Amino acid sequence: MIQVGDQLPAATLMEFHETEEGGCSIGPNPVDVVAASAGKTIALFALPGAFTPTCSAKHVPGYIANHDALRAAGVDEIWCVSVNDAFVMGAWARDQKTGDKVRMLGDGDAVFAKATGLTLDLTGKGMGLRSARYSMLVKNGKVVTLNIEAPGKFEVSDAATMLAQAKA
Question: What is the pTM of this model?
Answer without folding.
Answer: 0.93
